[in-house]
Automatic annotation (TrEMBL), chain A:
It comes from Monodon monoceros. Subunit of non-clathrin- and clathrin-associated adaptor protein complex 3 (AP-3) that plays a role in protein sorting in the late-Golgi/trans-Golgi network (TGN) and/or endosomes. The AP complexes mediate both the recruitment of clathrin to membranes and the recognition of sorting signals within the cytosolic tails of transmembrane cargo molecules. AP-3 appears to be involved in the sorting of a subset of transmembrane proteins targeted to lysosomes and lysosome-related organelles. Residues 804-951 form the AP-3 complex subunit beta C-terminal domain. This is AP-3 complex subunit beta. Residues 975-1085 form the Beta-adaptin appendage C-terminal subdomain domain. Residues 679-713 have a biased composition (Acidic residues).
TrEMBL record, chain B:
Gene3D superfamilies: 3.30.450.60, Mu homology domain, subdomain B. Residues 176-417 form the MHD domain. This is AP-3 complex subunit mu-1. Belongs to the adaptor complexes medium subunit family. GO terms for molecular function: small GTPase binding. One of its GO terms (cellular component) is Golgi apparatus. CDD domains: AP-3_Mu3A_Cterm, AP3_Mu_N. Signal peptide: none annotated. GO terms for biological process: anterograde synaptic vesicle transport; intracellular protein transport; postsynaptic neurotransmitter receptor internalization. It is a peripheral membrane protein.
């Protein structure tokens, strides 16, 4: 958080944030603040003004321009405050563009981004599933760590949503939350587990994606869902199919025994061409050793087969790799046809598919042999495709088709694409070594190429011929002579080096030519490439050993040249050779064996496919394409020796019957459809009813819920109707208690109001300044100024109206299925916005009716430095929170400032100068202090309305001569006022603040820290809360309300077995709640 | 999965970037530019590039590079296929997938990308759903928008995404109910010097244009379904019906879409409708050569062959060509060395030919290989494989639709080696 970082350094980091703060204030008084903006900011001034205009069209234009800037990669982050205000815009396009902006910049402007959270929280309860879903999408895309608990709650809630679309988005959000905060893993796995059980095809792909990202090793979560996933696969959307297939491939490799016969894999690689034999063998083998495939294994293979027909290349490739890795070898053949079909696609798809085919064709030639001609190269193919095709053709070459292939290669060699021609020559070389029948033919062909006009072709031919000759012990004097002649014309270093090596190796076969070659190269030695120089040295050494009479001097000369070469490799080699071959007194025993060392029989090189090593990567993966392990690559395990218990995949009988019959699929779809359409109707109904019948809606919507549920799934009908009636009973009981509680609270209510009127003049005067404060404060002031005029009846009615509704939510939550509840909970759009605000205001006053502010339990004496004496030129200031209700205003937190004069002279006229406050924040300053004696100190108090946020209040502390910029950032615990309430009231209020409004965490600490006094002491030290008397020893309750809005803040510490405890916070102000949770957690867990 | 997307034009400017997770700096594209430089030709830029912290997967479409940034293992085809789907969507929305079109509609592009991916995982890729969410721009609409201030973003929320048939939107209504099918077959062939076929196969597609109200359930049957060897389906087709009865049964998307693509079994002999007589020769030690090609019909099943064009990539040493066509017109681009001969229709009475001289760079060695000829042609009202649609039935709706089937045969990758 940037605001923390600039607490003391105004010049460096502080500048930017201070400006931002000012931008925010500029919305109130645009004229005053402008002078301070840098010129860079002025550029976007018109955009800012457009965003602040009242016209949607101007806002839209501004947003479009901003999105244009984002798209070009220009920085538009300075507009953040102006943009974020429009997050609640009614215009759907503006809203969407604001979302785009928010997601892009929230990470950089975390504090300001928090302002938008409440909008999404509201939208999460919208009756329209698409709005809920998009709210979740954006909320979870805002990468601000502080909202992790809110995201967690939202995901939890959405994962139980009635709409499969919302659940799908919940699955997406899981990955986002995980990448933001990996510590949430355990909780996320729980949600994944729940979502994996989901029967909707919409959800399946996304949740498996989340599974792969978060916990790919938790294979045990798949067992129970394995059969369902196999059966659903065909109906899942295409992107989900890819992910599921890859996951199931890994699963199958851990759960089933190999369908391949023993040692098949190895044998297969060696004997490439006899694959018709192989199949036969497999059959006989099957006869010998009875292998029965697990029916689940078979199910997977069967249910993926239709997907080979998909139009999506990724799906086809995924199925192909599944067949390759887990199907019996005799069945894998069907994938080749589909893969070949993909070759008609664009070049990128071709590239990947050809790579995979290349790997496959090394191991199992037979698969692609019938499609040999599909790999013929066209002159219009890009080079990389040509080379891959060539690779496959080489792998497929055998005695039967080599003649056709060689004819084809002849065309390729002549290609204008020289890189491709060179690759073809390599290929011919490989074919020649692999198939002994054609070695001679190939060699003659290659020799013909030596007379080619293109140097690259000739050079490549030389290199290949060198390799071929090495394999053939037969005499090839003629070819060598021919190549020696080439040395005059050829300039490519590799080729020259190859020729020299070849002559050196065969120097005894061409005794006349070899010394002559050495003579020529000795002349040109200095001008040669390093590679060639090394070979000249080699040639010299070999000739010196075999024909020292003719070449002794020449070799000496070359060795001398090499001694002074610039390249140290060559100097090194020269020294080595000289010691080895030239006899002198120092040369050791080795020189006797020099001949053996230099002219040993060298093993022929093995010409291998570059795709040979790739088969250990799973096909179709990024790692396979790159031939290196990519980050996040999951190794495919080997088949287990013995299959793990297959019964883990058994599901309860009813479901089994439903899922096992393939024909049952069509039937299963029907109830699904009905289910969707009904849920839509239901939503409409419920929203209507809640708007129409205000007082009755509670009970009515309850009935609807029951109806909806029972039709939802007939199989669970009985159990559900049971729970439904139970819920009804509970509801009735609750109603009773509510009416009772109401009558209790009424007189308290009155009192409260009376006390408020005295403050109202103050509050009202401040609310005039506060023109653009957030809705909460608006409703607050409204409720104060207007609600008093409203009759008691209305208040009662709304209370009746709202309370049973919220009650519904919690009841259904307990039962762990959460159907239409959320839509009903919100006031419907039929009510005008002002009325909603009204209701909210009433609700607040109603909730505060049962509570009264009490005195603080404990006042910590900890002070914070406001101004250090070093930076304050001798004036030091400290502040602390006295935890007293503020006398300056109801919404303010009182702060006491102690000023010390450490100088030797009088400090005069201490007062507060310019204030830089975030939007909505207010401050009541202390009266100027005329003078402060040396060594004197004075304590003054002031009030700050922090608007229930932990944003920093910056202002200037001025003396007669100087101004010092200082900040006060309140700890979250100081934004509260303690509240006294009974345990019963606490429980009641807590019951109304469940779901989204609840955050919780688990604390682990030593038992001695869990005594009630320790807990009490720790909690009240951090936060200004009141203690609620508790009937149970293991539960501690604390209550408070936020200073600004008066929302309740209920803290519960519930001790569990062992040394854990659960910390629960219930509040409407979820941001503050989660902040408090974060503050409390470390304090409680530390010793 | 997909972290970010950069759109890069041919001259190497990054003109659009979009991030779905944390922002990845543009500098990551430097690795791509490096690879591009190394590849020399745009066609040869490797689709997958590994950099120290990221992986770049790119496609090249319509002179634009779509470069996506990946951080962890993902099937590369998944990304490639998705990027092509993005390009298809642009094409669909703006009529062309070009830099200018994207720049003009940058807001719509951004809105589309936002809907298509969530956290890098595809969310809505069906064009029907996208069109409901974000209306494509039209001249009329942009005029109306500027006057009334309404927007391109649909305020009705799409229902398709929530249903079991995500490709079709609800509440489709037409006054004229029509269903058209185009059976388009392409012949891929390599013909060698002597005129014999090295390799030939038929690839076909059935494109549909369906404008039917409500929720029609169609079934299309063929006279000779056995011909279809390898088929890939639009997701709307019920695979089980095809397996058991060889009938295409489906609830169609609204508008234009590709119903199936298929390959005709390679066992069948492919009829090659044209033949080419050619004699191209370059004289040793002289700066000219002779060029002579003639095209004639062969096995054309009594239909006229039209729209013939011949494209030849001449060797680099060719300076200019002086030719006379008996029919049509020709152009030779001395920079790219591409000869294009637009022939038109073949009339069997007088076979079209192109004859003349080739000027070579003096002193340069003669090219050793003759260039191969790429031929394009079209035959209306013929499916060269003999595939025939039998009937189209509609269930689920009461009205009587107007139905039509059209057959076309084209040359695909049709290459004659000389």
């Amino acid at each position: 958080m940037s605001s923390n970082s600039f607490a003391y350094s105004e010049q460096s980091g502080g500048g930017e944030a201070a400006e931002l703060g000012q931008e925010a204030t500029s919305t109130i008084s645009p004229s005053g603040a402008f002078g301070l903006f840098s010129s860079d900011m002025k550029k976007n001034e018109d955009l800012k003004q457009m965003l602040e205009s009242n016209k949607d069209s101007a806002k839209l234009d501004a947003m479009k321009r901003i999105v244009g800037m984002i798209a070009k990669g220009k920085n538009a982050s300075d507009l953040f405050p102006a943009v974020v205000k429009n997050v609640a815009s009614k215009n759907i396009e503006i809203k969407k563009l604001v979302y785009v902006y928010l997601v892009r910049y929230a990470e950089e402007q975390q504090d300001l981004a928090l302002l938008s959270i409440s909008t999404f929280q509201r939208a999460l309860k919208d009756p329209n599933q698409l709005i809920r879903a998009s709210a979740l999408r954006v909320l979870s895309s805002i990468r601000v760590p502080i909202i992790v608990p809110i995201m967690m709650l939202a995901i939890k809630e959405a994962s139980a949503d009635l709409s499969p679309y919302v659940r799908k988005n919940a699955a997406h959000a899981i990955q986002k939350l995980y990448s933001l905060d990996p510590e949430q893993k355990e909780m996320l796995i729980e949600i994944i587990e729940k979502l994996l059980k989901d029967k909707s095809t919409l959800v399946a792909g996304s949740v498996v994606m989340a599974f792969e990202e978060v916990c790919p090793d938790r294979i045990d979560l798949i067992h129970k869902n394995y059969r369902k996933l196999c059966n659903l696969l065909v109906d899942v959307e295409e992107w989900g199919q890819v992910v599921i297939i890859h996951m199931l491939t890994r699963y199958a490799r851990t759960q089933f025994v190999s369908p391949w016969k023993e040692g098949d894999g190895l044998e297969d690689k060696e004997k490439d061409f006899y694959d018709s034999d192989e199949e036969q063998k497999e059959k006989t083998d099957k006869g010998k050793k009875p292998y029965t495939m697990d029916p689940d294994h078979r199910l997977l293979i069967r249910s993926t087969k239709p997907l080979l027909q998909s139009r999506n290349a990724a799906v086809v490739m995924a199925v192909a790799q599944l067949y390759w890795h887990i199907a019996p070898k005799s069945e894998a053949g069907i994938i080749s046809k589909s893969l070949v079909r993909l070759l008609r696609s664009n070049r990128e798809v071709q590239y990947i598919v050809l790579q995979n085919i290349a790997t496959m064709s090394i191991q199992r030639k037979g698969m692609f042999e019938p499609y040999l001609k599909s790999f013929y190269v066209r002159s219009t193919d890009p080079t990389m495709i040509k080379i891959l095709k060539l690779e496959i053709l080489t792998n497929l070459a055998n005695e039967a088709n080599i003649s056709t292939l060689l004819r084809e290669f002849q065309t390729y060699v002549k290609s204008q694409d020289k890189q491709f021609a060179a690759a073809t020559i390599q290929t011919i070389g490989r074919c020649a070594t692999n198939i002994s029948e054609v070695t001679d033919t190939c060699l003659t062909g290659l020799v013909c190429l030596l007379s080619n006009r293109d140097e690259i072709v000739v050079a490549e031919s030389v290199v290949v011929i060198k390799k071929l000759l090495q394999m053939q012990p037969v005499q090839h004097g003629e070819i060598i002579k021919h190549m020696a002649k080439l040395l005059d014309s050829i300039t490519v270093p590799v080729a020259r080096a190859s020729i020299l090596w070849l002559i050196g190796e065969n120097c005894e076969r061409v005794p006349k030519i070899a010394p002559d070659v050495l003579r020529k190269t000795a002349k040109s030695f200095t001008g040669e490439d390093d590679l060639v120089k090394l070979q000249i040295l080699n040639l010299g050494a070999k000739l010196y050993l075999t024909n020292s009479k003719q070449t002794k001097l020449l070799t000496q000369y070359i060795l001398n040249l090499g001694k002074y070469d610039q390249n140290y490799d060559i100097r090194d080699r020269t020294r080595f050779i000289r010691q080895l071959i030239v006899p002198n007194e120092k040369s050791g025993a080795l020189s006797k064996y020099a001949k053996k060392i230099f002219l040993a029989q060298k093993p022929a090189p093995l010409l291998e496919s570059p795709f040979k090593g790739r088969d250990h990567y799973q096909l179709g993966t990024l790692s396979h394409t790159l031939n290196t392990t990519a980050t996040g690559y999951l190794e495919l395990s080997n088949w287990p020796e013995v299959a793990p218990d297959p019964s883990v995949r058994n599901v309860e009988v009813i479901e089994l019957a439903k899922e096992w019959t393939p024909a049952g699929k069509a039937k299963k779809e029907n109830p699904d459809k009905k289910f969707y359409s009904e849920s839509a109707e239901e939503e409409e109904d419920s929203s209507e009813s809640s708007s129409d019948s205000e007082s009755e809606s509670g009970s009515e919507s309850g009935e609807q819920d029951d109806e909806g549920d029972s039709s939802e799934e007939s199989s669970e009908h009985e159990s559900e109707s049971g729970s439904g009636s139970e819920a009804e009973n509970k509801r009735a009981a609750n109603k009773n208690s509510k009416t009772k509680g109401k009558s209790d609270s009424e007189d308290v209510d009155k009192e409260n109001e009376n006390s408020k009127t005295s403050d109202s003049s103050n509050a009202e005067s401040s609310s005039i300044e506060d023109s653009s404060s957030d809705s909460a404060s608006e409703s607050e002031s409204e409720s104060e100024s207007e609600s008093r005029k409203v009759t008691k009846e209305k208040e009662n009615k709304t209370k009746q109206d709202r309370n049973p509704l919220t009650k519904d939510v919690s009841l259904l939550d307990l039962d762990d299925f959460n159907p239409v509840s959320t839509p009903v909970a919100r006031p419907t759009p039929a009510l005008s916005p002002s009325l909603i605000a009204d209701l909210e205001g009433l609700n607040l006053s109603a909730s505060s009716s049962v509570i009264s502010v009490s005195t603080p339990v404990f006042v910590p004496v900890k002070t914070h430095v406001l101004l250090h004496r070093m930076s304050g030129k001798g004036l030091a200031a400290h502040y602390f929170f006295p935890r007293q209700p503020c006398v300056f205003g109801d919404n303010m937190v009182s702060v006491q400032i102690t000023l010390n004069n450490t100088t030797d002279w009088k400090v005069e006229n201490i007062h507060i100068g310019e204030k830089k406050l975030p939007v909505g924040m207010q401050m009541h300053v202390f009266n100027p202090i005329e003078s402060l004696e040396p060594e004197g100190s004075i304590t003054v108090s002031m009030g700050i309305d922090f608007c229930d946020s932990t944003q920093t209040a910056s202002f200037q502390l001025c003396t007669k001569d100087d101004c010092f910029s200082v900040n006060i950032q309140p700890p979250v615990g100081e934004l509260l006022l303690p509240v006294a309430m009974s345990e019963k009231d606490f429980k009641k209020e807590q019951g109304m603040l469940t779901g989204m409004n609840e955050t919780s965490t688990v604390i682990i600490a030593a038992p001695q820290n869990f005594t009630s006094s320790v807990i009490l002491q720790k909690v009240v030290n951090v936060a200004n809360v009141g203690v609620v008397p508790s009937g149970q020893d293991n539960i501690h309750r604390f209550a408070a309300k936020t200073v600004h809005s008066g929302s309740l803040m209920l803290v519960t510490v519930e001790l569990k077995e062992g040394s854990t405890a659960q910390l629960i916070i219930n509040t409407e102000k979820t941001v503050i709640g989660s902040l408090l949770l974060r503050e409390l957690k470390p304090v409680l867990s530390q010793g | 999965m997909i972290h970010s997307l950069f759109l890069i034009n041919c001259s190497g400017d990054i003109f659009l970037e979009k991030h779905w997770k944390s922002v990845v700096s543009q500098s990551v594209c430097d690795y791509f530019f490096e690879a591009q430089e190394k590849a020399a030709d745009v066609e040869n830029v490797p689709p997958v590039i590994s950099t120290p912290h990221h992986y770049l997967i790119s496609i090249f479409r319509d002179k634009l590079f779509f470069v996506s940034v990946i951080q962890t293992e993902v099937p590369p085809l998944f990304v490639i296929e998705f990027l092509h789907r993005v390009a298809d969507t642009f094409q669909d929305y703006f009529g062309e997938c070009s830099e200018a079109a994207i720049k003009d509609n940058v807001v719509i592009v951004y809105e589309l990308l936002e809907e298509m991916l969530d956290n890098g995982f595809p969310l809505a890729t069906e064009s029907n759903i996208l069109k409901e969410l974000i209306k494509p721009p039209t001249i009329l609409r942009s005029v109306v928008n500027s006057i009334t201030g309404s927007s391109n973003v649909g305020d009705t929320l799409p229902t398709g995404q929530l249903s079991n048939i995500p490709w079709r939107r609800a509440g489709v209504k037409y006054t004229n109910n029509e269903a058209y099918f185009d059976v388009v077959e392409e012949i891929d062939a390599i013909i060698d010097k002597s005129g014999s076929t090295v390799f030939a196969e038929i690839q076909g597609v059935i494109d549909a244009c369906i404008k039917l109200s409500g929720m029609p359930d169609l079934s299309l049957s063929f006279m000779n379904p056995r011909l279809l060897d390898d088929v890939s389906f639009h997701p709307c087709i019920r695979f089980k019906r095809w397996e058991s009865e060889r009938v295409l049964s489906f609830i169609p998307p609204d508008g234009n879409f590709r119903l199936i693509s298929y390959r005709v079994s390679s066992q069948n002999l492919v009829a090659i409708p044209v033949y080419v007589k050619h004699s191209i020769s370059f004289k040793e030690n002289s700066s000219c050569g002779r060029f002579d090609i003639t095209i004639g019909p062969k096995q054309n099943m009594g239909k006229t062959i039209e729209g013939i064009t011949v494209t030849v990539h001449m060797p680099k040493v060719v300076l200019n060509m002086n030719l006379t066509p008996t029919q049509g017109s020709y152009t030779f681009d001395p920079v790219t060395k591409v000869l294009t001969w637009d022939v038109g229709k073949i009339t069997p009475q007088k076979l079209p030919s192109l004859k003349g001289l080739v000027n070579l760079q003096s002193g340069a060695p003669k090219p050793e290989e003759n260039p191969s000829l790429n031929i394009q042609f079209k035959i209306q009202q013929l499916a060269i494989s003999g595939l025939k649609v039998n009937r189209l039935d509609m269930y689920g709706e009461k009205y009587k639709p107007f139905k039509g089937v059209k057959y076309v045969t084209k040359a695909g990758k049709f290459q004659v080696r000389t």
